[in-house]
Design a protein that fits this description.
The two termini are 20 Å apart. The chain is built from 13 helices and four strands.
Length: 376
């Protein structure tokens, strides 16, 4: 019985980690695919629209069926929150992110998003979703890790250095091209603004789930309104250019379908589920995994270069983020296990033949002292 409870407890602890790792793997494939699609002329504004349209049509049937019992009545307050959510991430963040990627590279864009946990941490602290005790070493680790994350992002943005992997010839060409550095700075600013919007989305999603706990339905609503709002933005930005809306059986269609299913519908749902128990900072703390995967895939698939300065900045970001994760490791305590132990009736006592003795172990996580409550 004890082994069963230990296995179950381990599985419950592992589920959030499996979910966020899966999200980052999905984002890594998205970065490489979307960069390749935009290199072939796909508009980032139109891409966002198709992506969320696909996500809505895929996830809506599941939301209608599985959320019947948990979906609350839609109110004006909840609808306004969903409208803001669909504007923050599907429209503002993604358009800025892919626009910044156009000016830089897929690896650079993925690395810049590693400031997301720092921004989320600051917003969560301001809104009292994250607690800090100055004298606690774990709270100090959260603050130091956050500062290291921002510092690493600045190093990665401003430092370039020699090429570690890739073609040196293309590096020499870029050093003589003055617009390359300008594009890098402009791209980093655009992506940073997008990350701030993304952090606001994660915080507001955590707040919205408290009054609208149907995670699948919330994801479907976000994708639907994101499609409508994104279409309005795309019509303005791509006015007079109807050819950008055409799709064929090529990489552009594959990119829209994949990112819609995996990176919008499934991702919004998984991070909502994890956020209910672990909070918004935990969800965003695993972004470095995306950067590592993107760097590897971009080097082999897109032939992107790896520079020393960006590698140093990336290492600083990773170290800072995992200091934050260590600082948050004690913020979550699993529910205490309940163990039932049957006790055989005493000999000669016929009136207690069907009596059982329950022993409930209640653990006080503040003091670390376990007490036992007996019920007859």
């Amino acid at each position: 019985m004890e082994n069963h409870h230990e296995t179950q407890n381990w599985f419950e602890r592992a589920k959030p980690f499996v979910a966020v790792v899966s999200i980052q793997l999905g984002y890594a494939c998205m970065d490489v695919l979307s960069k390749a699609a935009m290199n072939k002329g796909m508009s980032n504004y139109v891409f966002v629209v198709y992506r969320h349209a696909v996500a809505f049509f895929v996830i809506a049937p599941f939301a209608w069926f599985f959320d019947k019992k948990v979906r609350p009545k839609m109110t004006l307050s909840i609808f306004m929150k969903i409208a803001v959510l669909s504007l923050l991430e599907p429209v503002i963040d993604q358009n800025l992110y892919f626009l910044g990627m156009k000016y830089t590279t897929a690896t650079f864009a993925a690395t810049m998003t590693n400031i997301l946990p720092a921004i989320t941490f600051i917003l969560a602290f301001i809104l009292r979703l994250e607690k800090i005790k100055i004298k606690s070493i774990r709270s100090q680790a959260k603050v130091v890790g956050t500062l290291a994350t921002v510092s690493g992002a600045m190093v990665m943005t401003l430092m370039k250095g020699p090429v570690l992997f890739g073609s040196h010839r293309s590096n020499e060409h870029s050093q003589h091209n003055g617009t390359n550095t300008q594009h890098t700075i402009l791209g980093s600013v655009i992506i940073t603004i997008g990350c701030f919007s993304w952090a606001c989305f994660v915080i507001l999603q955590a707040i919205t789930l408290k009054t609208y706990p149907a995670a699948l339905s919330l994801s479907a609503w976000i994708c639907l309104l994101g499609t409508i709002e994104g279409a309005a933005v795309a019509m303005v930005m791509e006015r007079g250019n109807l050819s950008v809306w055409s799709l064929k059986w090529d990489l552009k269609l594959l990119c829209a379908v994949y990112t819609g299913i995996v990176c919008s519908g499934l991702s919004y749902y998984l991070q909502g589920v994890v956020m209910k128990t672990r909070g918004p900072v935990f969800v965003t703390a695993f972004n470095p995994l995306c950067m590592v995967n993107v760097a590897i895939m971009s080097f082999f698939i897109l032939a992107e270069q790896v520079f020393l300065g960006r590698l140093i900045g990336a290492v600083i970001i990773c170290l800072g983020l995992y200091v934050v994760v260590w600082g948050k490791s004690k913020d979550y305590s699993p529910p205490s296990p309940i163990i039932q132990e049957p006790i055989l009736p005493a000999k000669g006592n016929a009136r207690k033949e069907h009596c059982t003795h329950e022993v409930t172990t209640v653990t006080n996580f503040e003091s670390g002292i376990a007490t036992r409550e007996e019920q007859v």
